[in-house]
Specification:
Number of strands: 29
Strand order of the largest sheet: 10-9-11-12-13-18-19-20
CATH topology of the largest domain: Rossmann fold
Shape: rod-shaped
CATH class of the largest domain: Alpha Beta
Distance between the termini: 132 Å
Largest sheet: 8 strands, mixed
Structural class: alpha/beta
Length: 824
């Protein structure tokens, strides 16, 4: 806790002389009458003065501790400590204290110079004093100067303190902000050393953790700029305000701010004022409700409370300071007056409410207690020296800076259990209580410990909240206040820093297509692997949906149904032909090839079903080879029938007997040989590079096409080319035979069927190449079904019609064209 040059909080300096042996016994139990314990407040460092009862308390603790040490027969046997108390509120007093620390010969005749100086409360004053003491290697121990700047051993080599450095408080405050996710805060500070240095350090440390300061408003006791502070508080969007102020400035700030209706703020205080319950006047209770901050840990010092309350003017008859404080405490006067009551000197201090009489909790008081014991233990260490050296530290005990050297290596525990040791900067171990202001129904203030900060613990354990502790929040909030410049970028978006704004006021952009972010405030969006695709929120990659022609979807079911109808019609036609195989129309159309053609058409309809469903290794190889072989079998049968028609016509001509060259045996061999060529092509295809299932992730970004890769494109087009060649040949031969003199010329029907077949497959090629995904398969199935139905309908439906509905035309005479013409 400290103040700058414009606000001097503390009012005393303590020097403790080191006494050589038992001959030099100095005990001064009085506070010198000519000195005063004052607090200086104003624009200048000493423009106004008032009594500071907290500093009186600190001075009395020094007296209490010295007496306790002198009663201890083990710590300094044969020695008694003495002390001098100085007013540290003026430049003259600072210089006087420093000069006497160097050359002062006390009134008791002890010629040794003062070897240690305790104080000051204010960082700025301690800084000025140490500049004088450092060249002389005289140690200075402060109980309340917390400015981190004093830890710089290059400039302040003889400075030590029993209070933690503000660098630890700053770390604790940043951890507090981070824990509650307060990323957007405001700061009220003063231009004094303590406040200015502390807020600067806080801003730097906060920036490392992504916490931004919206504003830093300087407050002064002149209140000239206070309306601007109020306006900034009202317009600000941050809900958390850090009051990094010394005690007197906090009193001034709160006395002014209570006049304005500032609500909805979570006040966070520095340890300078966070435990001062006397700040909570009636107008400030609602304002300070829920305030929190780090405080020095509580300590138990047996007998101190009774000692403080035992102060009586009669015990210090020569001290004008005690009389002044007594008159201030009881609003009376030792000099008779008509305007005030007369002091008796027997009034009870326990009835007074002030910093001095508050003996229920000892926080900064313990630092004064430890400071006195520190010097006593250093002297004790000197007494343990043997033959000019200390066996513990190995340091020389005969140099001028012997006390300084021993203080540097002190490590002990006081009777109250407080541990005292210093790091390389002369700073003690930092331990804080996180406290919360809770205003009770009766209006009293309770400072509740809700957490701790301990710099000696591992990094992740330094700050922690107490379990099952009720926390009251500022701004009448029922939950943790939210204080951010911009809400975090949710998963599915990325965080982008805006150059023209603080880092906390970032922008959030939705992740581009195909990318995700799976954490809050992600700086980048991650590209999903090829087989995955972002969900709608773009916060995770999910397996891409697979697309293939399924039996369950409408198109797949429809094509399956059409294929089944084709199978049914083929079987039905076969049954009709089988039951009427002895009729002229069945015999005349080469019944053996007709049945083989119907069988092959049935296979064609069946093979269309292999194209539907999830592609697998066997289905990919089966679908293309089965399609190629069955269609060649089908076209071979049609070609055989066409050749039979032509041969039959040539056989009827005089002197021609062509049928002996293309009888049943030749017909079977031709069909078999033509089909075997396709089988060979398919076997070679399957052997060299067969069609296999493949996941096509290039056509669509958000889904996978499950398809059968052709493997060898040459093999696929060889299969289709061979089918086309046979179909073209069959079409040409049927076209030539279309006008043969027969009343039922089958060549005409074959011509129409081949015309449909060729038209379908010529149209299939561009449609197949351009169709995406499952539509490629659908086009191929449609081509198979259309060409199969073309053959079935054109070749067999007219015959079935005659068989079933025109039985009179199912005669040899009618087929030979010898039926008499109709008469009308």
């Amino acid at each position: 806790m400290a103040a700058g040059p414009d606000v001097c909080l503390s009012g005393w300096l303590t020097s403790i002389p080191q006494l050589a042996g038992a001959m030099c016994h100095v005990v001064d139990h009085s506070i010198h009458q000519q000195q005063q314990v004052l607090s200086c407040v104003g624009s200048g460092p000493f423009s106004a003065k008032r009594l500071n009862d907290r500093e009186l308390k600190f001075a009395r603790i020094v007296m209490f501790t010295v007496e306790e040490i002198n009663r201890d027969t083990k710590l300094l046997p044969g020695l008694s400590l003495g002390y001098r108390l100085y007013n540290g509120c003026g430049e003259e007093d600072q210089i006087r204290a420093a000069v006497e620390a160097v050359n002062g010969e006390d009134s008791k005749g002890c010629a040794d110079q003062i070897q240690a100086l305790l104080g000051h409360s204010a960082s700025g004053v301690s800084k000025a004093i140490n500049i004088i003491l450092s060249p002389l290697s005289i140690p200075q121990v402060s109980h309340l100067s917390t400015c981190a700047c004093l830890g710089d051993k290059r400039h302040f080599p003889t400075f030590f303190r029993t209070v933690p450095s503000d660098r630890f408080q700053v770390i604790g405050l940043v951890q507090l902000m981070k824990y509650f996710d307060w990323r957007w805060v405001g700061i009220i500070y003063t231009t004094g050393l303590y406040s200015a240095e502390g807020t600067t350090a806080f801003a730097k440390e906060a920036e490392k953790e992504g916490i931004c300061v919206e504003y830093r408003l300087p407050h002064s006791d002149t209140n000239v700029k206070f309306p601007a502070i109020v306006e900034a508080l009202r317009k600000s969007s941050s809900k958390v305000v850090l009051l990094f102020l010394p005690l007197s400035s906090t009193q001034s700030f709160l006395s002014n701010i209570e006049k304005y209706n500032i609500t909805g703020k979570q006040w966070v205080g520095s340890e300078a004022w966070i435990t001062q319950t006397d700040l909570a006047s009636d107008g400030r209770k609602s304002l300070l409700q829920g305030a929190m901050g780090f405080a020095l840990p509580e300590a138990s010092i047996p007998g101190l409370g009774e000692f403080l309350l035992s102060l009586k003017p009669s015990g210090e008859p020569q001290s004008a300071i005690v009389k002044d404080f007594w008159e201030s405490f009881f609003d009376c006067s030792f000099s008779p007056s008509n305007t005030s009551a007369t002091c008796t000197g027997t009034e009870d201090l326990s009835t007074v409410s002030s910093d001095y009489t508050d003996v229920t909790h000892f926080r900064p008081e313990n630092n004064v207690y430890k400071a006195v014991y520190l010097v006593a233990h250093a002297i004790h260490a000197l007494l343990q020296c043997h033959n000019g050296s200390n066996p513990t530290t190995g340091k020389s005990c005969v140099t001028k800076d012997q006390v300084l050297e021993h203080i540097r290596y002190m490590n002990f525990t006081t009777q109250s259990g407080a541990k005292v040791l210093f790091d390389e900067n002369g700073d003690s171990v930092a331990q804080y209580d996180l406290v919360n202001w809770q205003i009770k129904d009766d209006g009293s203030v309770e400072i509740v410990n809700i957490g701790k900060f301990d710099s000696s613990l591992p990094e992740r354990e330094k700050f922690k909240l107490e379990d099952n502790t009720r926390i009251v929040w500022g701004g009448n909030s029922m939950q943790v206040p939210r204080s951010v410049c911009r809400e975090p970028c949710l998963p599915g978006t990325r965080k982008a820093i805006n150059k023209h704004k603080p880092v906390c006021c970032f922008d959030c952009f939705e992740c581009p297509e195909g990318t995700i972010s799976n954490e809050t405030n992600s700086p980048d969006c991650l590209i999903c692997p090829p087989e995955l695709w972002p969900n709608e929120k773009k916060d995770q990659c999910l397996p891409k949906p697979t697309e293939y022609l399924s039996y369950k979807e409408i198109m797949g079911a429809l094509l399956t149904g059409i294929g089944c109808v084709g199978i049914f019609l083929s079987l039905l036609t076969s049954i009709i032909f089988l039951t009427h195989k002895e009729t002229p129309i069945v015999k005349a159309n080469n019944s053996e090839l007709s049945f083989l053609l119907l069988f092959s058409l049935t296979l064609c309809f069946l093979c269309s079903l292999t194209f539907i469903g999830r592609p697998s290794e066997w289905s990919c190889m089966l679908r293309h080879t089965a399609f190629g072989i069955t269609f060649v079998l089908c076209i071979s049968c049609v070609l055989g029938k066409t050749i039979v028609v032509l041969m039959a016509f040539r056989a009827t001509l005089p002197g021609r007997n062509m049928m002996k060259w293309f009888g049943p045996v030749q017909q079977r061999l031709s069909v078999l040989s033509l089909t075997l060529v396709q089988v060979v092509i398919c076997v070679v295809w399957l052997t060299i590079n067969p069609p296999l299932p493949r996941m096509n992730m290039k056509y669509y970004k958000d889904k996978i096409i499950l398809e059968c890769a052709l493997g060898s494109a040459v093999g696929f087009w060889a299969v289709l080319g061979y089918i086309g060649l046979l179909a073209l040949l069959c079409f040409i031969l049927a076209f030539f035979a279309r006008k043969l003199p027969d009343s039922f010329n089958e060549a005409k029907l074959i011509t129409f069927s081949m015309l449909i077949f060729c038209a379908v497959w010529i149209t299939f090629i561009p449609a197949y190449v351009s169709s995406p995904g499952k539509f490629t398969v659908a086009v191929e199935i449609f081509a198979i079904l259309a060409s199969s139905f073309g053959l079935l309908i054109c070749i067999f439906v007219p015959k079935c019609y005659i068989i079933l509905f025109r039985p009179e035309q199912n005669s040899k005479r009618h087929l030979m064209g010898k039926t008499p013409p109709r008469t009308h």
